[in-house]
Amino acid sequence: MNSKELIETLVKDLTALPHRDNARLDALRRRTNMIVRKVFPESSDHLKEVTSIQFYPMVGYEGQPDSDYDDSWRSGRSSMMNLLNTFLEEIKLSEAIMVDSEPNAAGAKDSKRVFLVHGHDEEMKQAAARMLEQLGLAPVILHEQPNKGRTIIEKFTDYSDVGFAVVLLSPDDLGCSKDQRIETARLRARQNVVFELGFFIGKIGRSNVAALYREHANFEKPSDYDGVAYIAFDRVGRWRFDIAKELKACGYSVDANKLL
């Protein structure tokens, strides 16, 4: 069975699960844990989401009405079904952007190096770097490269010879126009990140740059960068497949199945 079929069997078994059949539930949860580990080996969050679902009241007490157990069971079953359907959507999304047999018009990129511009958000940096490595690419993170007596700008220029750049726009700074009140200030990416975004747009072209931003109600994306692929750093992880799709369109030979 492929990944989609495995999750579909869980949906089928959950649908047929008799109400408050504890033995069948225990067997289903064990099988679900096993399949989720197999289908999403690189994601601990998926397994945590499965194991966190409760089918019984969090706190029990003597004389607790039976209806409490019925409500908890129904709630747990509904949460499990929603989660499994989310897993199916993720798998279908990855299948939609799988590498096809037709060559790209841009031609395959020879270099596997992809520059990773980042701010202070360590989670975004590590997640993006691991995603690129899963695709068989080599993320170039400036501070991880040797200095060799060079200034920052010299080092940056030397390592910027890449075919694609992923720019992480995290809400690290706060700013507004000098004519506005400080209360109107909005979260922004750091100035060096915005500078490097513009640098790579000018050097390799905006179609070869993907800007990954962390969603926040008060976050201000850089202006005057029309045509850049802005991708939301979502909790589910769809951003990984969106970036893989952009890489594929730019001529990189990548297989999105490696992200499952």
CATH class placement of the largest domain: Alpha Beta
The largest beta-sheet arranges its strands as: 2-1-3-6-7
Mean pLDDT: 86
Q: How far is the first residue's CA from the last residue's CA? A: 15 Å
The CATH architecture of the largest domain: 3-Layer(aba) Sandwich
Specify the number of helices.
8
CATH topology of the largest domain: Rossmann fold
- What portion of residues belong to β-strands? 5-15%
Structural class: alpha/beta
- Structurally, the number of domains stands at 2
The percent range for helix content is 40-55%
Low-confidence stretches: 99-107
Overall strand count: 7
Q: Any idea what the shape is?
A: elongated
CA-based gyration radius: 23 Å
SSE succession: HHHHEHEHEEEHEEH
Biggest sheet, in brief? Answer: 5 strands, parallel
